[in-house]
Give the backbone structure.
Amino acid sequence: MNKDTILSVENLVVKFFLRKSTVEAVNGVSFEIQKGERVGLVGETGAGKTTTALSILKLVPNPPGRITDGNIYLNGENLMEKSEKDMRKIRGNDVAMIFQDPMTALNPVLTVGDQIMEVIRLHNDLGKFEAMDKAKEMLELVGIPGERYLDYPHQFSGGMKQRVVIAIALACNPKLLIADEPTSALDVTIQAQVLELINNLRDKMGMSLLLITHDLGVVAETCDKVMIMYAGSIVESGTVDKVYRNIMHPYTSGLFNAIPKLHEESDRLEPIKGMMPDPSDLPEGCAFYERCPNAVDECKTKKPELKMVEEDHAVACFNPIKRGA
Amino acid sequence: MAKSKAYKKQELGNSQLKMTWIKLRENKLAVASMFILLLVCLVAIFAPLIAPYDYTAQNYDEMLMFPCLAHPFGTDQFGRDILSRIIWGSRYTLIIGFLTMVVSCIVGTALGVFAAYYPKLDNPIMRFLDIFSSIPDMALLMCLVIILGTSMTNMIIALGIYYVPGYARLARAQVLTLRDEEYVEASRALGASDARILLNHILPNAMAPIIVRFTMSTGGCILESASLSFIGLGIQPPEPEWGLMISQGKSFLSTNWYYSIIPGLCIVLVSYCLNYLGDGLRDALDPRLNY
């Protein structure tokens, strides 16, 4: 781990202990985020993306969820050893999170100004008026006139609400911003604006970004690095450039095939056959075995490890797709 | 400090209180109710100055007189002036009604909020409160008053205990739906403590039905205290509590209807005003109804 590593997750395992079964939501995920780096975490619904993000803040709902193994280092400090009180200081201050649905992420009975002010005053020793100034500054930063400080969330449109949510998240200059599908609830034109805003602010403030999405296009536009997640494990990771140019995991390839292409005329999209395995009953070998066109015998019994195949590109597969094949 | 002066009134906007007042003003019924309640409060405070007669003064020459100029509300079987008794009685009624509701509302809401927010406390708190709600109301109240001893304070305590489970259930139901809201999760992700989440984010959103219940049950509470007084466990005669007056007048209902009806109308008036005011307040406090 070098000095510029903001976040380092090592072998994270999160399980949900239900009455009837144990759901293995995250199975040994490891990754690092460097200072100022933008990382995309891609995967289908239920792949464990949000659980991974919540683990970083130690907010996995407990019970039933529990981080059963692994370490998370933020600026070299192990979060697993932190008390709840210390975690409260980290949340919002060092690591901030943007949630999926801006419609419900704001408290309907408080003015947006108050809500921005709240996080500022939680983490800084500022007077009311100084915090107010800062809150207005934040609003202007995300492109909302400062006078709207006194408005309530219902007086804003969806895209503006998401801007407010971003303002709240960034109010304390976090080192890492986790954006959990920040654009999924917005329409396409607003999506572009919000992404551009996140991108611009990241450039301005220099924080790192962990962007969770199922939109590969968004990742291509926004991120430096990408991690593809399937059934609680990272199956392929690397720089966006390398991964997109040289897809090696059959699952990643399946995801790309499922995107409609502008330059090809086709009546049907090509879905990945089958369903994701039940996370409470994962197969012994590769989780993608059942659906994989490239499967070999080895896949059924052994779990593939994430291995470097070239510089800045790792794949967890025994029989990856060869270039040109 | 120099900074704070830079903020002009306009920039700060209207305070919550002022905004509420502006919105409440548009609801004529609520404003009228508020003035009537204020009037009742003033009457209670200045009872000794307003009441035309001593409320205990008996006058056997003027027993059971129908309303007339000397006695606008008539007199009772001891010749006591009913108007004076109503005026003095407003003190008891207001104190019992408000104090009981305030106490049970605060205690009940707190218990309900904790029960919903901390799942481990849910069963202990709610099952304990179920004990109280499983006993018929009069039996429970009688037991409590007999155990505590007959006095106004004890009656308020007993009534308070009786109303706690209702508030607790209501608050619990509200918080159960609110605690999984995304803004609660979001503020936790921003480092807010449980206390802050409860006070800033959950309670203000849960208040609307609690306010309504508060105003709706005040009337019931006044009647409940009247029943207690009737069986001799509440306010003791000759104190002029409104509910007590209704039950005393009951036996004269066929001949002297005004004896029971007038205090009854007073209770109805106060309850109605509380309901309308509560209704108006609930709307005025909800920022979603801003325009």
